[in-house]
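Example record used in the benchmark description.
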Amino acid sequence: MFPEILFEDNHLIAVLKRSGQTVQPEPGKPESLEEETKAYIKHTYQKPGAVYLGVIHRLDMPVSGIVLFAKTSKSLTRMNVSFRDREISKRYRCIVEGKPPAASGRLVHYLKRDEKKNFTKAFESPVKDGLESSLRYEVLQSQGKKTLLQIDLETGRKHQIRVQLSAMGCPIVGDYKYGASKPLADHSIQLQAIELEFKHPVKDEMIQLSLKNSKYLLKL
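Model output (structure tokens):
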């Protein structure tokens, strides 16, 4: 199976990650997005031998959306620097339980990881080993007990959106780990990476990748 290709040139390839899929291979898990993308490149360009593909960033297994890979080591190195220096604009959509206290706002928490439990906890004030984390949200639509939000990440921490929205009292639908009322049947959560904007690692131009006009866009 080949992934849905959202953007491709000689240096980068952006693909759509499905909920329930890992970005990189994991024991006992279905074929990863990285493996699918390598298979696509090998088949499309009839490449002999191993295919190079650099992992620039990741999405949690139950999350869907845009994932960007590097097709050359030079692109990977330069994109890693851009991510490290927060030069990448990342936007998400999610459906949450309940409704935020305001139509838009900025959340700031100090996030502390428990790697053994693969769990992140949010604190209102600084704590030992806690990393200051922030995001902005905007309400797009409300329907019954659910709300569609747009999220702009200002920092990129593990499980950041999930734990910060839960701390606000609006857990993401299906995210039982972080306080949702129940899991979804397919174990996905209603969180999607919908936009990436960045400077191309080789060409002197800005690239914007978006699902906004796509049939795959998360909707309420």
